[in-house]
Prior knowledge:
Blueprint: H1 13-17, E1 22-28, H2 39-59, E2 63-67, E3 71-77, H3 82-107
Antiparallel strand pairs: 1-3, 2-3
Helix pairs in contact: 2-3
Amino acid sequence: MPENDNFQNDKWQWLHDLKIELALLQVDIVAHSSIVASDAGKVTIKVIFGDTIQNIAIAHDGKPFSWAGDGGSFMFLTGGNGFNQLVNAALEILDGMPNLNERLRERQD
């Protein structure tokens, strides 16, 4: 990125001085391309997976950051109880995977 001598006078200056500490929780459907299902079935699986993960992250004060169909990331502020919220969300997702996998298997065509 080229130096911008005018950055100090720029309306974006506040970003330069802003410090926000956050962590990202990344999730993904492993080997989703090998799922044996119709295209509609794969879409349904991705939606169920995404909605389930998003609901857990939001319940723990996470915010969606990016999503690419079969996976994505959620951001958590790390100050205060934020890091614990991230860890609790990750553990809830991990603990819930057997049940979620069973639900997703039932949706395969």
